[in-house]
Specification:
Shape: elongated
Radius of gyration: 40 Å
Number of helices: 3
CATH architecture of the largest domain: Sandwich
Mean pLDDT: 74
Number of domains: 2
Structural class: alpha+beta
Order of helices and strands: HHEEEEEEEEEEH
Distance between the termini: 107 Å
Strand content: 15-25%
CATH topology of the largest domain: Immunoglobulin-like
């Protein structure tokens, strides 16, 4: 919901004209300047004051948009397989605040809390995580924190291969006589 504050004077003038018409107020220019004592505005029926207040109060109260506060619990993380990763965001603004976690720009279904916990990060969980916080005045997106899933040592070295058996070949210690090649003459 967007508030158009530039229309507020027009709205207030319309309400004032309506109230003056309903109360029978007529402005006439005085022939002689006279100081008059101001009397309170009398409304023709008792519920009219409540109606005017109900129209004016929502216009006067403008909700503040959400603001995401930098936090040390929302940084890029490298997590070993089997461990968990947690991202937490801190936001302020007029209630109700609505949270939505995203991974690489796509909404994560059901992740609408201040904290996102990833149980055992795997390669598909790697990527950039951010949060969109919104209220009636608008929304704001946090910066991106990256998650890196670090494989265990056995995954880095690969499967172990058996050691090949010792070579069963023999080495020769005798030398071979040199070969003589015939030379062609003309």
């Amino acid at each position: 919901m967007k508030t158009n504050l530039h229309l507020l004077p027009l709205l207030l003038a319309s309400i004032a004209a309506f109230v003056m018409t309903m109360t029978g107020y007529r402005q006439s220019s005085p022939k002689v300047p006279v100081r008059r004592r101001m009397s309170p505005l009398r409304l023709p029926w008792p519920g009219m004051a409540a109606m005017v207040a109900a129209i004016l109060l929502p216009c006067a109260a403008v909700a503040s948009p959400p603001v995401i506060t930098p936090s040390s619990s929302f940084n890029s993380q490298s997590v070993f397989a089997g461990a968990s990763a947690t991202f937490t965001i801190t936001a302020t603004g007029d209630a109700p605040l609505i949270y939505q976690w995203r991974q690489d720009g796509a909404d994560l279904p059901g992740q609408t809390n201040k904290t996102l916990r990833i149980g055992t990060p795997q390669p598909p969980n790697e990527g950039g995580y951010d949060m969109v916080v919104g209220n009636a005045s608008g929304s704001v997106t946090s910066y991106v924190a990256r998650l890196y899933a670090v494989p265990t040592t056995s995954e880095l070295t690969g499967p172990t291969t058996p050691t090949p058996p010792a070579c069963a070949c023999r080495t020769s210690t005798t030398s071979q006589p040199a070969m003589t090649l015939p030379v062609a003459t003309r």
